[in-house]
Amino acid sequence: MADSSHGHTPAAWTGVSIAFIGFCIAGVFMVMAEPVGFWAGLVVVALGGVVGGVMSSMGMGMPKEDPELVARREKAASLQS
User: Fold this and answer.
1) C-alpha dihedral (27, 47, 2, 70), degrees to nearest 10
2) Residue 57: predicted pLDDT
3) What is the spatial distance between Cα 10 and Cα 14, in angstroms, rounded to a whole number?
4) Digit-coded pLDDT (tens) for 27-67
5) What predicted TM-score, i.e. pTM, was given to this entire model?
6) Closest alpha carbon to 11 in 45, 51, 38
7) Are 63 and 69 within 8 A, CB to CB?
8) How far apart are CA 15 and CA 61, in angstroms?
9) Please, which residues have CB within 8 angstroms of residue 5's CB and are 6 or more apart in sequence?
10) Which has more confidence, 71 or 53?
11) What is the distance between the alpha carbons of residues 34 and 45, in angstroms, rounded to a whole number?
């Protein structure tokens, strides 16, 4: 797992950062017993997911693997076992 670059992309960092801010906003307003602020925080959380997805589709996420490479890797794994 340590050799993978899972999540080390601008899209992932931006999406998670926005979602974290949204969770913080929702948490503060939940303690303050303000439902409108809580729901606004959850909207920010959802916005983080949308922003991360859009950035990933723009090429700032992990590159897609070549299907031929995946097939070769699976074949090699099946030959080893």
Assistant:
1) 150
2) 87
3) 6
4) 999 999 999 999 999 999 999 999 999 998 888 877 777 77
5) 0.72
6) 51
7) no
8) 11
9) 62
10) 53
11) 17
